[in-house]
Design brief:
The complex is a heterodimer. The longest helix of chain A is centred in the middle third of the chain and has 32 residues, at about 185-215. Chain A has helices at about 1-20, 20-50, 65-75, 90-95, 110-115, 135-160, 180, 185-215, 220, 230-260, 275-285, 290-300, 305-315, 320-330, 345-355, 360-385, and strands at about 55-60, 80, 100-105, 120-125. Chain A has a four-stranded mixed sheet. Chain A is built from 16 helices and four strands. Chain A is about 65% helix and about 5% strand. By secondary structure, chain B is of the alpha/beta class. Chain B has a domain at about 1-75 and about 190-245: P-loop containing nucleotide triphosphate hydrolases (Rossmann fold, 3-Layer(aba) Sandwich). Chain B has nine helices and ten strands. A six-stranded mixed sheet of chain B has the order 6-7-8-3-9-10, with helices on both faces. Chain B has a four-stranded antiparallel sheet with strand order 2-1-4-5. In chain B, α3 (about 90-100) packs across α4 and α3 runs parallel beside α5. Classes of the chains: A mainly alpha, B alpha/beta.
Chain lengths: ~400, ~240
């Protein structure tokens, strides 16, 4: 039995390695993922950091009505810009069609109201849905608010009142998250890439095991050989797992190299994704491979052709991401009962690894055991399906 | 020899085989003839243990198929319809893979593969990938693969389909050689002309039943003045009348 499994496994590995198209797609995934990831992060970083301290040209309507405010803005790098907007409606239209990111309109009654009991009105016009304008909007808002508070405090002092009277509460932020911890938000996507790469690595072989062999008419003679169908299928699944692990290893290697080129420090994060972390991540994800292989083989055995199997398996690739979405939405933390859920447990463990938190070995054990047990069950189901006569199509 | 006794098989509402009985002897070539959909492939699938019959029994040599399918498979070589080679493996690797799965020790395996490659004139393509082979080359390699464990019995599903004249001639030659070695050869076909020069025994199957069997000489004697082709057509259409 062992000899048969090894013979089949070896042949499947050799055959797949010879198929250039399959090999190409196998290599493409692991390299494309990290590349995409690094590009996205780089764009995000440059967008978040761009112009935080640089002068910003700000279209201001009615600048002449508030010379002090303008001076305050100027001192903080917000320079009034020449523009053809005349009033709030004009500015709203300009922002709406995307000509401006943000504009400020100083009310006609500003001069009259300033210094009286009426609050002087300053309108900030922006489009919140435009993500590229977020940092500008915040900057303009913050600066205007700072000016208002400064004037307010000065007025209180002038009236002999301590400004702290208006601040019964002093809210102090003390953020104890480590730089590595903050990087988790972005590196959370990493698990998805890794699970995806693991699954796609075995996709071809999982389909080939049943639908592919049937289509090439090689399944029937194979089943006339004096070996059990269980050992044939186990050999094929072993080869599938091998390719999944190779795909995972390649992806991890690519990420380890790529993440060195991401300026995470500029975001106040530190990437602790070194070779040791990559190795530990590989270890945590290993038990997921047999489960994925069994799942894909089981699903593919119901299909008639390679193409049909490909269609179904594309949906299967989404299944492991469902717990990840759930985790992201509810912001769940690693806990014992979640370790029973494959893919989610691996995600939480890898997140902890990246946060540079100590590994909980009980969690690691349960995560591995639950994945392997489910993998064995699905493998058993795949074997039962392989033993049906309907497998011949 | 292969002994088929009263074998039946249903697929849902379709009765594919309905009490099929025949025997294929050692040192003989037996032709299983019938129109498309007559049950030839189902019959061969049952003989090659890929599917199980609903009723009846099959013996291959001294082995009961239902009782010991894995033992029976060692006694059988199967040439499937359409060769079923692995396109990314070379001819030699295709043959050796099956030998390995038959549990042959590695030196014997290499030796057998080499001998078959020489005998079947496959030397020129032995180390080329199977994906570029012609139908004739594919059939040759598939035959070598079916013979690697030196089975006493050989099952061939439509072996001549898709072959050109020369390839067909060669195939006939090899089958006669196997017969001379005392092996039991059972092949299926739906064209009488292709097999009448080759077979020692004819089993005509239609509508899931054996409608006629015997040696070509016996059949010619039983229906004087009629060609085997005419006898075949009569046997097949008779069955169709019987089932309708």
């Amino acid at each position: 039995m062992i000899r048969t499994i090894l013979t089949v496994c070896r042949k499947e590995i050799l055959e797949t390695a010879r198929d250039r198209r399959t090999l190409f797609s196998l290599l493409l995934g692991p390299l494309l993922g990290p590349l995409l990831f690094v590009t996205i992060i780089n764009v995000a970083v440059s967008r978040n950091l761009s112009g935080l301290d640089q002068p910003l040209d700000l279209p201001i309507v009615g600048a002449e009505r508030a010379p002090n405010l303008i001076a305050f803005l100027n001192a903080r790098g917000l320079h009034p810009a020449v523009s053809d907007v005349k009033d709030v409606d004009d500015a709203a239209a300009a922002v709406g069609r995307g000509a401006l990111d943000v504009a400020v309109v100083i009310d006609e009654r500003y001069e009259k109201d300033f210094g009286t009991e009426h609050a002087a009105r300053v309108t900030v016009i922006y489009d919140r849905s435009r993500s590229s304008a977020q940092s500008k909007i915040q900057r303009v808002h913050g600066t205007l608010e700072a000016y208002g508070q400064q004037i307010g405090a000065l007025r209180l002092v002038a009236n002999g009142v301590s400004p702290s009277l208006l601040r019964p509460l002093l809210v102090d932020d003390l953020d104890v998250s480590t730089p590595a911890g903050r990087s988790v938000l972005m590196l959370g996507v990493l698990t998805y890439f890794l699970l995806f790469a693991t699954l796609t690595g075995g996709l071809h072989l999982a389909i080939d095991t049943t639908a592919g062999e049937r289509e090439r008419r090689s399944l029937e003679p194979l089943l006339t050989l004096p070996v059990t169908r269980a050992s044939l299928l186990l050999g094929k699944m072993a080869a599938t797992v091998c390719y999944m692990l190779v795909s995972l290893a390649l992806t991890l290697a690519a990420f380890t190299v790529a993440l060195k080129r991401v300026p995470l420090e500029q975001l106040g994060m530190s990437s602790s994704f070194d070779a040791a972390t990559a190795l530990a991540t590989f270890g945590i994800l290993c038990p997921f491979a047999p489960l994925g292989a069994a799942l894909m083989t089981t699903v593919a055995s119901f299909t008639k052709t390679y193409r049909e199997a490909q269609t179904y398996l594309t949906f299967i690739l989404l299944i492991p991401t469902l717990p990840l979405m759930f985790a992201a939405l509810l912001n769940v933390e690693a806990e014992l009962k979640l370790m029973w859920i494959p893919s989610l447990s691996q995600h939480l463990l890898i997140t902890a690894l990246i946060k540079a938190q100590p590994l909980n070995w009980a969690f690691v054990g349960i995560s591995a055991a639950s994945s392997l047990v489910l993998g064995v069950l699905l493998g058993w189901l795949a074997i039962r399906l392989y033993e049906r006569e309907a497998i011949l199509g | 020899m292969i002994d088929v006794q009263n074998v039946s098989k249903r697929f849902g509402a379709v009765r594919a085989l309905d009490g099929v009985t025949f025997a294929a002897g050692d040192g003989r070539i037996t032709g299983l003839l019938g129109p498309n959909g007559a049950g030839k492939s189902t019959c061969l699938r049952i003989l090659s243990t890929v599917i199980k019959p609903d009723g009846g029994r099959v013996r291959v040599g001294d082995t009961d198929l239902a009782a010991a399918p894995l033992v029976a498979r060692r006694l059988l070589g199967v040439l499937p319809h359409g060769s079923g080679l692995y396109p990314q493996l070379t001819a030699r690797e295709n043959v050796e893979y099956y030998g390995r799965l038959h549990g042959l020790p590695e030196p014997l395996l290499k030796q057998r593969a080499e001998a078959l490659i020489a005998r079947l004139d496959l030397g020129a393509i032995a180390d080329r990938k199977a994906k570029g082979f012609s139908q004739g080359e594919k059939t040759k390699v598939a035959l070598a693969r079916a013979l690697v464990h030196e089975p006493q019995h050989l099952l061939l599903d439509e072996p001549t389909s898709g072959l050109d004249v020369m390839a067909t001639r060669h195939l006939r030659e090899w089958l006669r050689e196997l017969r001379a070695q005392g092996r039991c050869v059972l092949l299926s076909s739906h064209v009488m002309q292709e097999v009448e020069a080759l077979v020692d025994d004819l089993v005509i199957i239609a509508g899931g039943r054996v409608t006629l069997s015997g040696t070509p000489a016996e059949l010619a004697q039983r229906y004087p003045g009629r060609s085997l082709e005419e006898i075949f057509v009569a046997a097949v259409s008779g069955a169709e009348h019987a089932t309708t």
